[in-house]
Amino acid sequence: MHPAADRPGPRRACERLRGARSRILEATGAVVLAAAALVAAAPSRVAAAVFFGDLHAHSALSDDASNAPDAFFLTARDVAKLDFVVLSDHDIFLTAGEWEILKTTAASFNDEGRFVAFSSIEWSQHIGHHLNVYFRGDSEEYCPLPECRRSADFYSFYGPRVVAGEAAAHVNHPASPMFTIPWNEMDDTITTSVEVWNSDSIGSHEHQFGGVIWALRAGFRLGLVGVSDDHHTDLRPPLIGTGLTGCHAAALTRADLLAALRARRCFATDGERIQLDLSLDDTPMGGERAARLGDRLTARVEVLATATPVTVVVC
Question: Could you tell me the pTM of the whole model?
Answer without folding.
Answer: 0.84
